[in-house]
Amino acid sequence: MSTETVKTDRPAPKPKWLRVKLPTGKKYTELRGLVDKYSLHTICASGSCPNMGECWGEGTATFMILGNTCTRSCGFCGVKTGRPESLDWDEPEKVARSIKIMNIKHAVITSVDRDDIKDMGSIIWAETVKAIRRMNPETTLETLIPDFQGVTRNIDRIIAVKPEVVSHNMETVKRLTREVRIQAKYERSLEVLQYLKKQGINRTKSGIMLGLGEKEDEVIETMHDLKNIGLDIVTIGQYLQPSKKHLAVKEFITPEQFKKYETIGLDMGFRHVESGPLVRSSYKAQKHLT
Length: 290
What we know:
The two termini are about 30 Å apart. Helix 4 runs parallel beside helix 5 (about 120-135), helix 5 (about 120-135) runs parallel beside helix 6 (about 150-160) and helix 9 (about 215-230) packs parallel to helix 10. The protein has helices spanning about 25-40, 45, 50-55, 90-100, 120-135, 150-160, 175-180, 185-200, 215-230, 255-270; strands at about 5, 60-65, 70, 80, 105-110, 140-145, 165, 205-210, 235-240, 250, 270-275. The chain is built from 10 helices and 11 strands. The protein is of the alpha/beta class. A 7-stranded parallel beta sheet has the order 2-5-6-7-8-9-11. It is about 35% helix and about 15% strand. The mean pLDDT is about 85. The longest helix is centred in the middle third of the chain and has 14 residues, at about 120-135. The chain has one domain (about 5-290): TIM Barrel.
């Protein structure tokens, strides 16, 4: 079984394993209709996630809060960078209402970085979780949070509202962090995840992208680093370039290599490992409750 990567020194067609079928199914069709009818906003749709049909079919969706403009300019991310608009203090209720309308069983909440405000958005984060709990008491939650610059009083607001899963993505290996994430720090992200675990979060989670020029031993090193701080769940997927302005894909990782990382991760003792070309942070998120 080959574990070689397909190198791309210049733009190349996506390999066959990255081609996906159009989403179908009764549940997907129902949710698609509700999103269109009520002008609801999900990352699944706006980000053209390849797993949208599968996730929606299982009653899972991802929502982004704190606006659509990020204060950071990461080389991999398609979210707009600039000076964000003022906070929308009605946003928690709007998100909670969207989840109710869509009858979502498990919601993933993420956000842009808001380094422009003192609490870095953590207050609206907490209020969003509270609003979802009030309006959707049966819905379980994963919060995919920024690093909040490592400020523990902001992280504590997330811990206080007790999401079932708290996630923060490493995104890449240590050597590439400065190039890929720019304003983020590898060690700080590890510290955030470790703090969450030490403060009693039962399920912590992180994700990395492959195809940015990392080496196999660096991926395994990152997995070891995450396991050493007590992380429960790791996701590993293929990086895809959002536009020509973003970092180029250095290689397409084969399904066999992803499977190898999954086996390595399970052998390390992670509770769940999702590793595959189409895996994204919230892929099979509802499964991570067990």
